[in-house]
Amino acid sequence: MKYSGFLTNLLILIVTLKAATIPNEDNRENKIGSEEEVLEEDHWIEEDINNNTLNQAATIPNEDSRENEIEGVWEEYKELEEQWFEQYINHLDVLDNSTFYQRYFEENTYFKPGGPLLLEIGGEGAITADSVRDGPSYKLAKKLHGKVVLLEHRYYGKSSPFENFTSEYMYYLNVEQALEDLAYFIQTIKRTTPGLEHSKVGVFGCSYPGSLATWFRYKFPHLADAAWASSAPLRAVADFQEYLEVASAVYANVSSLCVDTIRKGYDETKKLLSTPEGKEKVRTKLENWGCGNITDMEPNDILGYIRYVVADHNVPPNHGIESCRILANETVRTSPLERLVEFLLHQSVSVCSGYETDFPNDGLAWNYQTCTEFGYTVTTTSSKQPFNDSRKGVEEDVETCIENFGEKFNMEALQRGIERINRVYGSVNLKVTKVLSVHGELDPWYKLGLYEQNNEEAPVIFIPGTSHCAAHIESEDEPIALTKARNKAEKIMMKWLQ
């Protein structure tokens, strides 16, 4: 998700543009198919035996059941290979037959004819084979004998129609074309896959893919029988001031002193960064933080990263309590600045560690979508947050839009794009059925989504003490409330998809 203009520039890292990986000529004959033949089963037998994994299995009553158990292990843990789907570049022009290849992974371990198609929607980044087995669709596949598919979003990862990422080539990057991609893919895979012809379809996503899941069920109810949308923002907005309000409450709900430390420490940092001597002092204090080489950063970059670390939306349930042990600790004689620095050194490694990518153009693609459809600038305009700034966040981000894509991508274009998205897809007032919306209390993005239920046919699950997309991926030490909420969500989806 977008944070601010300076971060957008850092994340985009416009380098030599790379062509998307295209399947070989032999595979172009098939609209749906593997890039290579599946590895022989013998390979998996040999690999598992060599790793002694099968020798540690529990005692099996008889040889036949043992063989079935071993076969299940091979199927569940074998590596998924890339698949390719020939997709139209422009669905809205029937005279334009240009196509590109869209990457996907599929998991068929538990699939039986008639079982549902469970489609995980890719978002603003490259997909990976490992994530196919992480989401709720995989767990439901075990219970419903479903086929799980993860489809990469156009222009991200290896699924770009063009190798050029200038604005004229990014014209086909928008919600409408992305939803048409899903529709054509579902229609085709159901028609061409034995056992799927009459299957129900569930679509899944968290964050932006959750938005797409909601909008897909809204626009194509004849193609999707149910949708699970975790942490899905549905209201596009230029000034997302609520973000820092929620992030601040994570600390304020523990201790007012905790938030006061952030406020005073941030103000002191700003003051120091206004002088050459102060800059060196700040750079020395934060020399070992996890957000990059601070000696190369301008003051606004440093302040932006501080806000980013403090307001991270991917936090564990006990984040507020653990953070305030540092921020509100007055047992030692330290200043608010020193306590804030200690917190930043502790927290920045985990928050800032996800910037490296094999697909640097993903950042540019997401920037294009925020410049033309969503906005989502996290601002300091609210008084209910600790960062006392006069910065003009929206204006800064629009300047980045103009720098990256041209003069036409100005404030007027942004506002028009936001108004259109909210008009066409209903914002938080859309009337939809069989869409499950799941949100976490600690996630600022819930403020832009369906977090209050006003329709029994579109249930909402709001989970206390959890953050962004928490319901989408299981963890061993998750709170009981999260486990119960996920179990409830699974029952709802099973009812819709059986």
Automatic annotation (TrEMBL):
SUPFAM superfamilies: alpha/beta-Hydrolases. InterPro entries: AB_hydrolase_fold, Peptidase_S28, Ser_carbopepase_S28_SKS. Keywords: Glycoprotein, Hydrolase, Protease, Signal. Residues 1-19 form the signal peptide. It comes from the Eukaryota. The keyword Transferase does not apply. GO terms for biological process: proteolysis. GO terms for molecular function: dipeptidyl-peptidase activity; serine-type exopeptidase activity. Belongs to the peptidase S28 family. This is Uncharacterized protein. The lineage of its organism: Eukaryota, Metazoa, Ecdysozoa, Arthropoda, Hexapoda.
